[in-house]
TrEMBL record:
Gene3D superfamilies, A to Z: P-loop containing nucleotide triphosphate hydrolases (3.40.50.300)
InterPro entries, A to Z: P-loop_NTPase
Taxonomy, superkingdom: Bacteria
UniProt protein name: Uncharacterized protein
Protein backbone atom coordinates (compact mmCIF):
# COMPACT_ATOMS: atom_id res chain seq x y z
CA UNK A 1 0.00 0.00 0.00
CA UNK A 2 1.31 3.40 -1.00
CA UNK A 3 -0.89 6.30 -0.06
CA UNK A 4 -0.79 10.08 -0.39
CA UNK A 5 -3.00 12.00 2.02
CA UNK A 6 -3.55 15.71 1.49
CA UNK A 7 -5.02 17.61 4.44
CA UNK A 8 -6.63 20.95 3.67
CA UNK A 9 -7.73 23.25 6.43
CA UNK A 10 -7.47 26.69 7.92
CA UNK A 11 -5.29 27.52 10.91
CA UNK A 12 -6.63 25.67 13.93
CA UNK A 13 -8.60 23.07 11.95
CA UNK A 14 -6.66 20.18 13.47
CA UNK A 15 -4.46 19.23 10.51
CA UNK A 16 -1.46 18.26 12.64
CA UNK A 17 -3.57 16.18 15.03
CA UNK A 18 -5.44 14.52 12.16
CA UNK A 19 -2.12 13.78 10.45
CA UNK A 20 -0.77 12.05 13.57
CA UNK A 21 -3.94 9.92 13.74
CA UNK A 22 -3.63 8.91 10.09
CA UNK A 23 0.06 8.08 10.55
CA UNK A 24 -0.70 5.93 13.60
CA UNK A 25 -3.46 4.03 11.77
CA UNK A 26 -1.23 3.42 8.76
CA UNK A 27 1.59 2.15 11.00
CA UNK A 28 -0.81 -0.24 12.73
CA UNK A 29 -1.68 -1.78 9.36
CA UNK A 30 1.85 -1.55 7.92
CA UNK A 31 4.40 -1.65 10.78
CA UNK A 32 7.38 -1.45 8.40
CA UNK A 33 5.96 1.44 6.39
CA UNK A 34 8.05 4.40 5.33
CA UNK A 35 6.28 7.57 6.55
CA UNK A 36 6.91 11.03 5.10
CA UNK A 37 5.09 13.76 7.04
CA UNK A 38 5.06 17.06 5.13
CA UNK A 39 4.24 19.98 7.43
CA UNK A 40 5.88 23.40 7.14
CA UNK A 41 4.99 24.10 10.77
CA UNK A 42 7.40 21.42 11.95
CA UNK A 43 10.32 23.62 10.83
CA UNK A 44 8.92 26.56 12.78
CA UNK A 45 8.42 24.75 16.08
CA UNK A 46 11.29 24.71 18.54
CA UNK A 47 12.39 21.76 20.68
CA UNK A 48 9.95 22.90 23.42
CA UNK A 49 7.00 22.79 21.04
CA UNK A 50 6.74 26.59 20.73
CA UNK A 51 5.85 27.92 17.27
CA UNK A 52 7.85 30.89 15.94
CA UNK A 53 6.82 32.23 12.54
CA UNK A 54 9.68 33.38 10.34
CA UNK A 55 8.94 33.99 6.66
CA UNK A 56 12.38 32.91 5.45
CA UNK A 57 12.28 29.68 7.47
CA UNK A 58 8.72 29.06 6.28
CA UNK A 59 9.68 29.59 2.63
CA UNK A 60 12.69 27.29 3.01
CA UNK A 61 10.58 24.66 4.79
CA UNK A 62 8.08 24.77 1.93
CA UNK A 63 10.81 24.29 -0.68
CA UNK A 64 12.39 21.46 1.33
CA UNK A 65 9.03 19.78 1.88
CA UNK A 66 8.04 19.92 -1.79
CA UNK A 67 11.38 18.35 -2.72
CA UNK A 68 10.84 15.65 -0.07
CA UNK A 69 7.33 14.99 -1.39
CA UNK A 70 8.56 14.58 -4.97
CA UNK A 71 11.43 12.37 -3.81
CA UNK A 72 8.97 10.20 -1.86
CA UNK A 73 6.74 9.80 -4.93
CA UNK A 74 9.76 8.77 -7.00
CA UNK A 75 10.90 6.33 -4.30
CA UNK A 76 7.42 4.82 -4.20
CA UNK A 77 7.49 4.30 -7.94
CA UNK A 78 10.94 2.64 -7.72
CA UNK A 79 9.80 0.44 -4.81
CA UNK A 80 6.14 -0.34 -5.57
CA UNK A 81 5.90 -3.12 -2.98
CA UNK A 82 7.20 -1.02 -0.09
CA UNK A 83 4.39 0.30 2.15
CA UNK A 84 4.60 4.08 2.18
CA UNK A 85 2.53 6.97 3.45
CA UNK A 86 3.13 10.51 2.28
CA UNK A 87 0.95 12.91 4.23
CA UNK A 88 0.90 16.63 3.45
CA UNK A 89 -0.67 18.66 6.26
CA UNK A 90 -0.26 22.12 4.77
CA UNK A 91 -3.25 24.42 4.30
CA UNK A 92 -2.65 25.23 0.64
CA UNK A 93 -5.69 27.11 -0.58
CA UNK A 94 -5.00 26.94 -4.28
CA UNK A 95 -6.96 24.10 -5.82
CA UNK A 96 -4.68 24.12 -8.87
CA UNK A 97 -1.56 23.47 -6.75
CA UNK A 98 -3.30 20.75 -4.76
CA UNK A 99 -4.46 19.10 -7.98
CA UNK A 100 -0.87 19.08 -9.27
CA UNK A 101 0.23 17.24 -6.10
CA UNK A 102 -2.66 14.78 -6.47
CA UNK A 103 -1.84 14.16 -10.13
CA UNK A 104 1.83 13.59 -9.30
CA UNK A 105 0.91 11.06 -6.60
CA UNK A 106 -1.44 9.22 -8.97
CA UNK A 107 1.18 9.18 -11.74
CA UNK A 108 3.59 7.53 -9.31
CA UNK A 109 1.04 4.83 -8.39
CA UNK A 110 -0.14 6.16 -5.01
CA UNK A 111 -3.67 5.86 -3.70
CA UNK A 112 -4.89 9.39 -2.91
CA UNK A 113 -7.16 10.71 -0.16
CA UNK A 114 -7.94 14.38 0.30
CA UNK A 115 -9.49 15.64 3.52
CA UNK A 116 -10.99 19.10 4.07
CA UNK A 117 -11.05 19.89 7.79
CA UNK A 118 -13.79 22.28 8.99
CA UNK A 119 -13.11 22.18 12.73
CA UNK A 120 -12.28 25.29 14.76
CA UNK A 121 -9.78 24.62 17.53
CA UNK A 122 -7.65 27.29 19.17
CA UNK A 123 -4.91 27.90 16.62
CA UNK A 124 -1.42 27.74 18.07
CA UNK A 125 0.11 30.21 15.65
CA UNK A 126 -1.44 33.45 16.85
CA UNK A 127 -3.43 33.97 13.65
CA UNK A 128 -6.26 36.46 14.13
CA UNK A 129 -9.84 35.22 14.04
CA UNK A 130 -10.47 37.46 11.04
CA UNK A 131 -7.58 35.89 9.10
CA UNK A 132 -8.72 32.39 10.08
CA UNK A 133 -12.20 33.17 8.70
CA UNK A 134 -10.68 34.50 5.47
CA UNK A 135 -8.58 31.35 5.15
CA UNK A 136 -11.67 29.19 5.72
CA UNK A 137 -13.58 31.14 3.04
CA UNK A 138 -10.70 30.80 0.52
CA UNK A 139 -10.66 27.04 1.06
CA UNK A 140 -14.42 26.85 0.54
CA UNK A 141 -14.04 28.84 -2.68
CA UNK A 142 -11.39 26.40 -3.96
CA UNK A 143 -12.73 22.87 -3.48
CA UNK A 144 -10.98 19.74 -4.65
CA UNK A 145 -13.08 17.12 -6.41
CA UNK A 146 -13.70 14.14 -4.15
CA UNK A 147 -12.30 15.66 -0.97
CA UNK A 148 -13.67 14.18 2.23
CA UNK A 149 -15.16 16.79 4.57
CA UNK A 150 -14.46 16.45 8.29
CA UNK A 151 -16.67 18.54 10.58
Amino acid sequence: MQKFILLRGHEGSGKSTFARTQIHQFQENFPDAHIIHIDNDLALTDKNGVYHFDFEKFAQAHRDNMAAQQAAFAQGQREPHRPMLVINANPNQKAKTCQQWIDAALQHGFVVEVYRLHRFFLNLHGVSENDVQKSYARLDANPIAGEIHIF
